[in-house]
Amino acid sequence: MAYINPYIFMLFRNGEVIVWDYFNHQQFALEPRYVKRLLELNNGERVDDSSIDKDLIEANIVQLEPPIIDDWGWDVLSHIFHKGTQNIPITKVENPDYDTWVEEYLEYCESIINEQPDLFTKRQGHIIDLPDPDYSLFNNKTLLSTLKDRKTSRVFNGGVMPLNTLSTLLYMTFGPIHGDWSDLNENGLLTTGIRKSSPSGGGLHPEEAYVLALRVDGLNPGVYHYRMDHKLTLLTEEISEDRLIELLYHQYYARGLSVGIFITARFDKAWWKYRHSRAYRNVLLDIGHVSQTFQLCATSLGYQSWLTGAFHDREVDSFLGIDGVSESTLFFVGAGIGENKSFDEKILEHVSLRDSKNQRKRSFE
């Protein structure tokens, strides 16, 4: 009895059929006769002593024992990502000593330095200077009270946010608040990253902030890109609350926000330094870090926050004018004045109606 390795998928690329074993990180180009034989074995034929079968078994594409299949709760795409990005060696030498590890790391850094992409993104459009961040705005709350008060709110009343508050919120979340990377400069090392209030893999900070100014005193409604020199680039004034809600798969919780931010990731930064797809994990974590920083800063400034990962990816990417490949949208955060509620009256009305229907149903049983 033959068993097909459950951890493989096939690609048709450049005239070749590629079998990718994502569990063991192996790839094989199959000749047509191997593809034909694989289909036969998959349809129930028995393994024989042919060289083809021996090759398929040696490559672990075909197995002689029943495989142990993970009890995985999501679809195969998520399983490929989860397993396919595990156990990736970061050194050429197995179990290197300290000096070997350092030398290999430095050699790798030197080999890629001339390929470094621009760290700072600049979009075309009218540039608007932001006021200097006002750190005194954070004096009203302690760290403890901020952590305890942070809450995902789904009810906002349309209150206005002053421009200096938005400026402070953007700078503390997305700005280079530390200035130059001093310990690199002091030791004569090249700066290949950015320091912000949140950590980032390799200091790359792939996140970009696209600000949807809905109700900001001192800033016209529109979509803006936040620059690392603490300026905004106007991309379009064509923005409405209804359009935002459409992009967010009709999540009406965004109604009444003062400001919303689509957080994108520039994957080209990660591609440059980290060549394996495991780095996609780091990018997702980076976006999570800045979203949490945004929420804590908004809370400390006296605003409620809301966040979501549910939106129409391709439409949002197109709306922001990004290609969806080298840069793509990963998250949305918003802030405004609200009632600090986890759900609104409409939800409660529907819950009440459902309870009433269930009670009537039980009374007839």
From TrEMBL:
Q: What is this protein called?
A: SagB-type dehydrogenase domain protein
Q: Where is the Nitroreductase domain?
A: 148-333
Q: Which domain of life is it from?
A: Bacteria
One GO MF annotation is:
oxidoreductase activity
Mind telling me which PANTHER family this protein's record contains? NITROREDUCTASE MJ1384-RELATED
User: Could you tell me which Pfam families the record lists for this protein?
Assistant: Nitroreductase (PF00881)
| Chain ranges passing through the membrane | none
Mind telling me which NCBIfam families this protein's record contains? antibiot_sagB (TIGR03605)
Q: Which InterPro entries match?
A: Bacteriocin_Proc_Enz, Nitroreductase, Nitroreductase-like, SagB-type_dehydrogenase
Q: Extract the coiled-coil ranges from the record.
A: none
